[in-house]
Amino acid sequence: MDALAAALTGRLVRAEDDDYDAARALWNGVTERRPAAIVRCATTEDVRRTVLLAAEHHLLVAVRGGGHNVAGTAGVDGGLVIDLGEMRDVSVDPGARLARVAGGARLGDLDAASQEHGLATPAGVFSDTGLGGLGLTGGIGWLRRRFGLTCDNIVGATIVAADGSVHHVDEESDPELLWGLRGGGGNLGVVTEFVVRLHPVGPEVYAGFVVHRAERAMEVLHAYRDWSADLPDEVSSMAVLGAAPEDDAIPAELTGQPCVIVLACVTDPARGPELLAPIRDLPDPAADLSGPMPYVELQQIFDADYPNGMRYYWRSVHLPELSEEALRRAVDQTYRRPSALSTIDLWHMGGAMSRVAPEDTAFGDRSAPYLVGIEANWTDPGDDEANVRWARACAADLDDLSTGREYLNFPGFQEGGQATLRAAHGEANYARLRALKQRMDPDNLFRLHQNVAP
Ligand SMILES: Cc1cc2nc3c(=O)[nH]c(=O)nc-3n(C[C@H](O)[C@H](O)[C@H](O)COP(=O)(O)OP(=O)(O)OC[C@H]3O[C@@H](n4cnc5c(N)ncnc54)[C@H](O)[C@@H]3O)c2cc1C
């Protein structure tokens, strides 16, 4: 360890260091970990040296991108964390519509740099998430129906394999490895730089934000189902069953009360009013905050809702349709939640993301038109069991109506294990990922994040 510490451009943080607790802290307070050391890498060479040391001494290794994995896979008790949090540079080539993004960059870093040129890549809806974990495992956000999943837009990478070798990957040099990085998770090595495709977006988009009281939930969801069934790719939306947020435009007596919110992003702001009319014209909304908004701002609207260190457990199921029974169960389950911070989110999928064939990326099948995100969010450690039980019960309740696939970025504590992974990737993709794993990491050094065993 001392030799590694001396050789690093970055810094090794150990338990006796003042900043150890800050360095090991993860977004999800439920997933506390105490690593032997955290290597704050600053360069690909730092990563390479750390990987070699870990492999030589058979250390358990966690890789940390943005540190926001729900299952806490960016930490490890007693092992070594390869922390990419110092590596957040983004450089944009507007002519080529490409960005080079360091392996620890947050979505906010990428959005800010690419929006300077009126460009963006599809990512998630929370700006502090790491591109690394989100993009390697899929990535669904406000541009998913227009420009696909985040992983569909990864066109190159620099990756350090378990033997310390450094690979520069693109469609020409290594199409199979690039295929694996599009949805294969943290299995294949440490990505120190991504190259992502950018698209013209913004600076303004049209944001939909319509709030109704929970008594109207079924009526609003019926309208949402009818509206979303026939939308152009320009609109990505979701219906959130939860509580009304605090906002000047929302009646104060509604704050924290059960409600349903329809949220949307229309990439062409001029078409926003027309495309959102069927949802906005529903009678008697509690509030309608819809309007043009800078894309960068839309990417940050949830930032205050998910503070670091709070307690979280998230699951998901894909639905082939918003059947009456599915909607009824979702509504019933939501308003039984033990924490008013928890939500059930109906994401409308389809569009560009669904036109990529299952075998074209490691991500797998995208045919389900709706994803149900089940978010248990709470504050008191004494409530852990009740909240986790609630989210598991919701997933179980919807299971017989679902496609049987979960979204691997909303993985609970990864307790679904191999069965969940195989179902998500599909058997043929799983076999291909396994072959790649044998090539890049035959001794399974990188095994904490949704592990495809070699
Ligand atoms: C508040 C919040 C909102 C979210 N919203 C969305 C959303 O809108 N859409 C969506 O799709 N997902 C969303 N997610 C889920 C998110 O995609 C996952 O939690 C993801 O794992 C976060 O990535 P990270 O890099 O921050 O996490 P980390 O915990 O740092 O990484 C997770 C794992 O990914 C791997 N990894 C990360 N970076 C690298 C790298 N550079 N090289 C190799 N492996 C790496 C590692 O194995 C690591 O353990 C959200 C999560 C949060 C916390």
TrEMBL record:
Cofactor requirement: FAD
Keyword Transferase: no
SUPFAM superfamilies xrefs: FAD-binding/transporter-associated domain-like, FAD-linked oxidases, C-terminal domain
Xref: InterPro entries: BBE, FAD-bd_PCMH, FAD-bd_PCMH-like_sf, FAD-bd_PCMH_sub1, FAD-bd_PCMH_sub2, FAD-linked_Oxase-like_C, FAD-linked_Oxidoreductase, Oxid_FAD_bind_N
Keyword terms, alphabetized: FAD, Flavoprotein, Oxidoreductase
PROSITE patterns, A to Z: FAD_PCMH (PS51387), OX2_COVAL_FAD (PS00862)
A GO molecular function held by the record: FAD binding
Record-annotated FAD-binding PCMH-type domain positions: 31-201
Keyword check for Flavoprotein: yes
Protein family (similarity comment): Belongs to the oxygen-dependent FAD-linked oxidoreductase family.
Name the record gives this protein: FAD-binding oxidoreductase
Source species of the chain: Isoptericola sediminis
